[in-house]
Amino acid sequence: MELNLQSLNLPSDNERPSCVIAGPCSAETEEQVMTTALKLAAKGCHIFRAGVWKPRTKPGGFEGKGEEALPWMKRVKDETGMLTATEVATPEHVELALKYGIDILWVGARTSANPFAMQSLADSLQGVDIPVLVKNPVNPDLELWIGALQRINQAGIKRLGAIHRGFSSFDKKIYRNLPMWQIPIELRRRIPELPIICDPSHIGGRRDLIAPLCQQAMDLGFDGLIVESHCNPDEAWSDAKQQVSPEILDYILSLLVVRDEHTTTEGIRMLRSQIDELDNQLMELLAKRMRVCREIGTYKKEHNMTVLQASRYNEILEKRGAQASLCGLSPEFAAQVFEHIHEESVRQQLEIVNQ
Ligand code: PEP
Ligand code: MN
């Protein structure tokens, strides 16, 4: 086990994904914070988020209100009963957040990418008992994400969770940050007991992507959502395009189909045994194919032929790509599968040729 964990134990609404954290990107004014919080609480939300210190890509943007905003968060807690959460990036942020009674801390994507910053945050959390959520680093590096979680865990924080907020990329055609779902899926496989929360706001960067991304997170068995919600989204001082009003958020959440990861029925067991049998056949076929490849390797050696024959390789990719379309598979998928198979054939033939 890579982490020593206890349950996050965050409040949840039975009808909703087990945990929903909602609130504005940034705490802007006391009025904006209170108006948003009261509306969210009225819709049944239990955890309020707001950024007090904002990491901005370039200088000159709104960098958050800092300590001035912390009493507003305290008011939210006192007047609505919601738990409060904010981002911390330095030991000073941790100290101030704790001083004003913030209930949950999260570490942002720019901070989790930096082991020095993570270690100094971890040091400042020694002896503190508070839930901490660690966003994925901006770069798609699972080990760096796990390392950031381990640093906080080694400081004694056991109520730990991960937030998937997507990964920076030059390609911003659809998403602000590419979801690359295979990364949080691999995190789940490696550390099954670690809760993973999806942040559709920073993945999508656009209001219309919030609902489908929330549903996708539910379909994949994520443990909760953190969504940016503002009383007047168009006027938000940061991330205006991706924020939704509390009313819209409530509507989005009401439409979500929440699925259960642990149910197994007779129906699914039968389908899975079919899959197991097919996988078995696939493996046997692959082994058979490799035996023929090795024979070809011997033949090539005897006849002094090169292992790689580019025209033959192209022929395989083209044939199988065309066949894929006819079988309802994507040609890109077929190309990837055959690239891997071919790579292994070449490796085995090289062994034979060099014996
Ligand atoms: C945020 O949650 O407002 C934020 C700054 O997120 P990220 O660290 O994912 O960019
Ligand atoms: Mn934001």
Automatic annotation (TrEMBL):
Chain segments annotated as coiled-coil in the UniProt record: 268-295
UniProt superkingdom: Bacteria
Pfam families in alphabetical order: CM_2, DAHP_synth_1
Chorismate mutase domain mapped to chain residues: 262-353
InterPro entries: Aldolase_TIM, Chorismate_II_sf, Class-I_DAHP_synthase, CM_dom_sf, CM_II_prokaryot, DAHP1/KDSA
Keyword Coiled coil: yes
Keywords (A to Z) from UniProt: Coiled coil, Transferase
Gene3D superfamilies the record matches: Aldolase class I (3.20.20.70), Chorismate mutase (1.20.59.10)
EC class (word): isomerase
UniProt EC number: 5.4.99.5
The protein, known as: chorismate mutase
Protein source organism: Prevotella illustrans
